[in-house]
Amino acid sequence: MAQWGDGESYSDGVYGDNTYDSGAINSLSPYALDPSYLPKEPEYIFPIESRRRSLGDRILPVTGHCYLSGIAVGGAWGLYEGLSTLPVGESNRLKLNTVINCCTRRGPFLANNLAVLGLIYSTTNHILCRVTEQEDSMINSVAAGTLTGALYKSTAGLRPVLIASSLGACFVGSIAVGHYIYSNRHRFLRYNTA
Q1: CA 83, CA 88: separation in Å to the nearest integer?
Q2: pLDDT tens digits, residue range 137-155?
């Protein structure tokens, strides 16, 4: 009787006269995947998809990162506030309750506000990319940050709108410049190591 994997046939005797070619079974094994079956480039249904991202592809990561950052920073802010305002001489349960109340007051507040900012930024950036037909342009990002700040504080008056739009432009501009420097770091390192 032959062993599996040596290319000979195997008869099991239990289920009758079934014969299996072990060489054919090994070639179809999921553990021995032939890389030539995998596509070399991304496959798209329509050719226009290869260069454009959808609105959902833009909104979900930005809004999620903003929300998680807000919950982390807001939770730390609430923890600091709760520990600094502990009631003296009270029981440990009351002290713990004070800290938890401060964390749950600040964390969701900051997380929701940052998620709304991320949602507005993603939408305005997507609209600007469609209007200008430039995908992931630094100018579109800074303009989207400016519009985000202006829309976020649009009900507060002209001065808060100007302050928020300039803060949005500076924040997104610094991120865009940092991303440009990081993505082209091999150029900067080559010139600075001489």
Answers
A1: 11
A2: 889 999 999 999 999 999 9
